[in-house]
Amino acid sequence: MEGVEKTAKTIEEAVSLALAELGIDREDAEIEVLEEPSRGLFGILGSKPARVRVQVKDTPSRRTRDLLGKLFGAMDLTVELNIEEKGNNLRVDIEGKDVGILIGRRGETLDALQYLVNLYVNKNQLSRCRVILDVEGYRRRREETLQKLAQKLADKAKQRGRNVVLEPMTSHERRIIHTALQGRDDIYTFSEGEEPYRKIVISPRK
């Protein structure tokens, strides 16, 4: 973990100096007091300053931010990362100029990047954290599109009385389709085929 040592008249002053150098807030830091300040003879002679060591907490959020910062730096992309942590889920919204290249065809580049981030963040960790990457709301818009498509094709399957086969999708997108239609009693869904060509079939109930 990245860390620095600082000395000052008081512990708080030393901690503030360290936080400023690391560019982090107090809640993102692990603080160790190495030496308490002491007053010498007559309050002057032999006095000792406070000395602290401050380290950056090794959290999923920090590991995600560090990795993406390095990747986007190498790509010469200036981005803003908005990270929201809820339990074992970490959602990262990426915003900035020219970030559309991170999405790729039907989100394939974004899915690959998300896979790499999850591998890195969870390496040698006792508890697993699920990291979800999004670029300027792409996943939300894509989810809404898939939900509407699911209902439209389900109606088509019911009206025609035969199966409707969707194009191959990722496991995440297939889950969206299944979830969108699970409440209907006039059709049912299942997946067939092998990855990466696995697809959903919408079938009318007889």
UniProtKB/TrEMBL annotation:
Region (Jag_N domain): 5-55
Domain R3H: 140-206
Subcellular location(s) of the protein: Cytoplasm
Keyword Transferase among record annotations: no
Any Gene Ontology biological process: regulation of cell shape
Subunit structure: Forms a complex with KhpA.
Domain free text: Has an N-terminal Jag-N domain and 2 RNA-binding domains (KH and R3H).
Protein function: A probable RNA chaperone. Forms a complex with KhpA which binds to cellular RNA and controls its expression. Plays a role in peptidoglycan (PG) homeostasis and cell length regulation.
Name the record gives this protein: RNA-binding protein KhpB
Lineage, broadest ranks: Bacteria, Bacillati, Bacillota, Clostridia, Eubacteriales
